[in-house]
Amino acid sequence: MIFSWIYEKEETTLMKTFLRSKGVSKSLLATIKFDGGCIWLNGKERTVLATLEKGDKVMIRIPDEGEHETTVGVDMPLDILFEDDHFLVVNKPFGAASIPSKVHPRLSMANRVKGYYQRQGYVDQVIHIVTRLDRDTTGVMLFARHGYAHALMDTLLRNKEVDKTYRAVLSEPVLTETHGFIDAPIGRTEDSIITRMVREDGKQALTEYWLDKSYPDGQTVKIKLHTGRTHQIRVHFTSIGAPLLGDDLYGGKADPDMLRQALHCESLAFVHPISGEALKIEAPLPDDFIKWESRQRDKEADIHVGTTI
């Protein structure tokens, strides 16, 4: 894959300094040098020690990655929300892990994406997961289609330039404000390597929420994370007495329409680090959310009729 830029600054600079400013790491430069890549300055092959002047055209060729990994490709459904040469965004279903495990080595989203790459005949088939979701969380999941794109997105994430929003159903209607924050540190529970809890010696965690709708049996909320702790949304809402509906790990109520924690990654917004395009990619609400809200509206109507009578 070839990338090109025009150097626009007045002062001169070294090629390696310029490429570093474009997110080309030392390891990627080594790959370019030793694995079949190339660097050009104004159409001529040069090294990273070349000097750039204003108006110079820089081009690099990044070698194909092939499939140097052990992830097995499978032919399973893949709901694609967005794709270009650099990124793939999918709508992850309930029950699919992000990465393979010893117990389920072929059922993860990584396996599905690898199978898709194989069927499409892509030259780059290494799986680069940018944003993971828990097995039972649905919604927007971002993959980079090559290592350079992955590195650029990691920089955006570190700089908090990726805006990700969630939808959740709380099993108790405890929220009274339409907008608020939960600012509470999170750490491991004493007796488990899986569960987390709010504790004074935990890591700082901040969750922002907007109350969407209150129903007889719960509330729907929009959520934005300002930190990325394990199970952060689930732990924070449990800490205020409103675990997510269906979240048996954290004490959420069981519900016939919600057979998992009621958490959905609704949207992902960022400026494409290569094209410069502002993107907002959204995943529709899953069927279990829709069914639960429909049942709640029916229940509200029954309550209203009973009150009127």
Automatic annotation (TrEMBL):
Keywords: Isomerase. This is Pseudouridine synthase. PROSITE patterns: PSI_RLU. NCBIfam families: rluA_subfam (TIGR00005). It comes from Trichococcus shcherbakoviae subsp. psychrophilus. InterPro entries: PsdUridine_synth_cat_dom_sf, PsdUridine_synth_RluA-like_CS, PsdUridine_synth_RluC/D, PsdUridine_synth_RsuA/RluA, RluA_PseudoU_synthase. Gene3D superfamilies: Pseudouridine synthase (3.30.2350.10). The keyword Isomerase applies. Its EC number is 5.4.99.-. GO terms for biological process: enzyme-directed rRNA pseudouridine synthesis. Belongs to the pseudouridine synthase RluA family. CDD domains: PseudoU_synth_RluA_like. The active site is at D134. One of its GO terms (molecular function) is pseudouridine synthase activity. Responsible for synthesis of pseudouridine from uracil.
